Please model this.
Amino acid sequence: MTDAGRHPRITIHTLSDVLEIKGNVGNFDVQIVKKARYVDEKACTACGDCAKVCPVVRPDEFNLGLSSRRAIYSPFPQAVPSAYVLNPHECLGNNPVVCSKCLEACEKKCIDFHMSDQTLNERVGTIVVATGLAPHDPRVLDEYGYTRYENVLTSLEFERLVNAGGPTQGHLLRPTDRQQPKSVGFIQCVGSRSARRGKAYCSNICCMNTIKSTLVLKEHYPDMAVKVFYIDIRAFGKGFEDLYTRSRRQGVHYVRGLPGHVEELPDGRLRVAVENASGGTLDYYELDMLVLAIGIEPAAGTHKLQEMLGLQLTSDGFFLEAHPKLQPVDAATRGVFYAGCAEGPKDIKESVTQASAAAVRAIRLMQSNTIAAEAITSEIDPELCKACGKCAQVCPYHAITVDPKKKTPAQVVTAACSGCGTCAAECAFGAITMNHFTDRQIVDQIDAMLEDRPSEKILTFACNWCSYAGADYAGVSRLQYPPNARLIRTMCSGRVDEQFIWHGFKKGAPVILVSGCHIGDCHYINANHWTVKRVEKVRQKMEKRGLRPERLQLEWISAAEGVRFAEVMTRMEQLRRTVTDKEIAETIDLLEK
Amino acid sequence: MTTPVPTTSTTAAGDARIGVYVCRCGLNIAQTVDCDAVAAAMAKQPDVAVAKSIGYACSEPGQREIREEIETLGLNRVVIGSCSPRLHEPTFRQMLAAAGLNPYLLEMANLREQCSWVHMQNREGATAKARDLVKMAVARSRRLQPLDEARLPMTQRALVIGGGVAGIQAALDMADNGYEVVMVERQPSIGGVMAQLDKTFPTMDCSI
Model:
């Protein structure tokens, strides 16, 4: 921490949040809001004179409310930066000006009530997303009486109680009577490994964290009775099994089974009922203290960042990597990398390993002062362009300039174009060529597909980032579905020209599926909004012309939704079976008129 | 109605000499898809100069074979029916570049993730689908045009969002390698959850 704080090439903005990110790999423009600290970060020597005179007492967040702090405070002794911070919502001196005691106490004069939030703009080439985790909140389910019984703690609260720098200087004290407990029980998988009670996934670190805690207890209090209630102990990492063995040798009692019921006894002790799965018995234990091994959940703000950078999430809500084995720290968005629990629950060693990997992947791009631009961009033929302005209106990147009043033909700023192809799909005059996904290329694919036995085939358009990746995920998961669909990949569902759909029906397609990223997840900011409008428009036209509009389907499938992809395929096949040869022949007749 | 469907060729179609390689991927594809039958069907397609099945297209011998045939047969388009392009498109694009072809003259058909692995009980259906997918790729490849990647400036600075153990490590590694790093942290101090922990496994030492 101090290495990072002192490093001449690292600028740390604390109390800060990313507000907006624009641009692409090589040139991301980042807007950061830095909240006022009300203390000069550089001048403050962390002497603490201000806190001594502050009359406002508040629960200390770092100690999870197990101790108190003042309205002006140091987050914790080793904080980086070490400067104190003033919470304006708690302070009396800011407004109304009635106190100002800290102001008077500070010799260095580093307190400034008039400090305001700053907006900073930074240009960077790469981004590492290391947004961490949110601990599971045991209050939601409250199955073990966390909100009702004071002597039920979370594993994080326990950490603070046994920490020498914590509220009790490392002495484990029971909250109700501030006496050292004679027996402590740990309950595993709180909020993990159960879709019904929290999250379905394993939070990875809780088993080892509990084992570590039992060893800490046995080291300090050899006579303490320590019990662990578990489903499985997952001690798979290097050196982990050793620690587990050591814990058992030191007399920690491991009970296979999670408590079904916890009740408080009059003396503050807790009576735990457990169905012991090893012995097949119903056991009761009376313990002085219970520790809930709470799981890891995605950090707050994950969704906001996901939308800002066009990232994808797994069904568990963590960030999805570009490839689970070969690009484990890369985001699908070029120039963005993941490190730590943002990508999934992991321990410190794994987080550090992943962080170093992310750093090297970023350096790999940054070591040159230029980077290959996207080659798949659009081009406008000025001869055909009528300067209507539609393309500029739909471009999510404002990469097209056009002046409809002066009738100057549209121009693409190639460096800003990301290649979604929405402009080409929306151009009514055929003036836009989407390189590598040209009309001709896609129409030829449709023709090749529907050349023979078209009635058996499902013409499917899939966007590269979500639905095509979702189809790949179905494959990796070996999910089986009917083999009738033929996918045509486009970079974005926004590329799917109305004309492709009519052409497909004209060539005898019984049903057509357009698929893309969920609204809000579009890799091209919001290009898929145009997909919705277009598909709706075509369906209305189909209805007017006497075609069943349900023969054209639109589905959002994320890169992690392999199951959903397989379900959609099965549903499309059922739909296909409702379309008769007669109906197809009538459609062809109608469209060829 | 938007773009009218082009009726005449605007590309170099007709001059195309397409090489089609149907990867068996060991048995990953071949156990479900009749790769030889797919290759044989493609050999009859117009502009296809060579069509064959191949053990592992991505392996060095596989790539060498394709590279050599680009030269000896004068191929100017390459179609590979194999795994997802999301996996090996960069690999095969590099292969084309090494053989002196523009990397964008490659087209892939997804015969593994989107065919053999999802229709394992239906060899006939999977083979029919594979034939269509490769045929579509051949049709598309005729119309492929070489593309150039322009160079854009790269800002040699990084943003790290989050100042926990992962963010700190990534920032230090990049900064120690000479890159400027901007770190953004919501809390008044960096350190994250790690800073709150007492001892940490497996070394049982302190976290800060």
In short: Residues 462 and 468 of chain A are 5 Å apart (CA to CA).
